[in-house]
Amino acid sequence: MDRVLVLKSLIVFLSQLILIVSAQNGRCPPYSDCGVLGRIRFPFTTTEQQHCGILAIHGCQQLPPSSPKTIKLGTSTSTSYSVLRIESRTIFISDDEQERYLRNRNCKAFSKNVTLPHTSPLASFVNKYNITIFRCNHSLKPSLSKDFHKYSNCSEYDIFYGPPNILTPPGFQWPSSLASCSTIQLAVEGNSTDDPFQFVISTIGIEVQLSNECESCLDDEKERCLLDTEGKFYCATGI
Ligand SMILES: *[C@@H]1O[C@H](CO)[C@@H](O)[C@H](O)[C@H]1NC(C)=O
Ligand SMILES: *[C@@H]1O[C@H](CO)[C@@H](O)[C@H](O)[C@H]1NC(C)=O
Ligand SMILES: *[C@@H]1O[C@H](CO)[C@@H](O)[C@H](O)[C@H]1NC(C)=O
Ligand SMILES: *[C@@H]1O[C@H](CO)[C@@H](O)[C@H](O)[C@H]1NC(C)=O
Ligand SMILES: *[C@@H]1O[C@H](CO)[C@@H](O)[C@H](O)[C@H]1NC(C)=O
């Protein structure tokens, strides 16, 4: 081996060592390796280092690297979702139950809101690409603009919807004729069409929106914001 190679291996070895040692100290490394998801950083972490971030991914250290990575969004007893990818502060997960409903054109796909983690002093969570679906009594005959679509093949209700929320122009108001309907917000891809099974999807992009307090922590060159054992907010530095 030439010297450069030796030096390079030494550097790699040392940086791995720092990661391992800092993990064992209960300190938090600047990033963690998470198999096919690559390097994950704050606000994401691994379940082995749950205390180092806001959302913890399970299975990061499992081999092979392509083995499933999952996440629980609520309490520890809640459903596990597969993690598909991470882009900056957005995590894309797949809802397998919803996927089955959509594939079978089952109206149960319109029965529940996307589950999001609870807001904390550290962050709130947004289903970034969503559409608001109105579920209305079949007897309701609202007059709506051409931006609205109706789907009447569900037995319990008619559904109405406009464009996905990310495409609604500023100042957009929901029609008051839909006020008696119940609403749900679902994950969506592209623009809406007459067939809701075309654009409602089972891949949910959850964006972590850090609190102002946490953002100022990061601006201040601190590495992350965390809650202590009493649930109190603090800024944490790196190693
Ligand atoms: C739906 O999307 C809009 C636009 O991206 C966003 O402002 C809103 O918070 C989202 N709703 C939920 C429940 O995440
Ligand atoms: C739906 O409309 C019918 C007829 O107007 C009414 O009898 C019924 O109570 C309504 N159902 C709901 C759930 O509002
Ligand atoms: C989305 O579709 C609506 C009609 O359903 C159309 O009016 C609107 O221009 C489309 N928006 C985009 C950004 O393509
Ligand atoms: C509605 O249901 C009928 C009968 O099941 C089916 O033939 C039709 O294609 C459905 N329409 C839509 C828009 O899904
Ligand atoms: C879904 O979420 C919306 C907005 O957060 C809320 O108004 C609505 O009542 C919820 N619907 C159900 C069925 O939980």
Descriptive overview:
With 239 residues, the chain is α+β, with helices and mostly antiparallel strands. It folds into two domains: 3-126 and 205-237, no CATH class; 130-198, no CATH class. The protein is 18% helix and 28% strand. It has helices at residues 3-24, 96-103, 196-199, 212-219; strands spanning 32-33, 39-40, 44-46, 55-57, 70-72, 80-87, 90-94, 123-127, 130-136, 149-151, 158-161, 182-187, 203-210, 224-227, 233-236. The strands form five sheets. Strands 5-6-7-13-8 form a five-stranded antiparallel β-sheet. Strands 10-11-9-12 form a four-stranded antiparallel β-sheet, with no helix packed on it. The longest helix is centred in the N-terminal third of the chain and has 22 residues, at 3-24. The protein is elongated and about 75 Å long. The protein starts with a helix and ends with a strand. Mean pLDDT is 88; it is low at 17-25. The structure holds 2-acetamido-2-deoxy-beta-D-glucopyranose (5 copies). One 2-acetamido-2-deoxy-beta-D-glucopyranose binds next to loops.
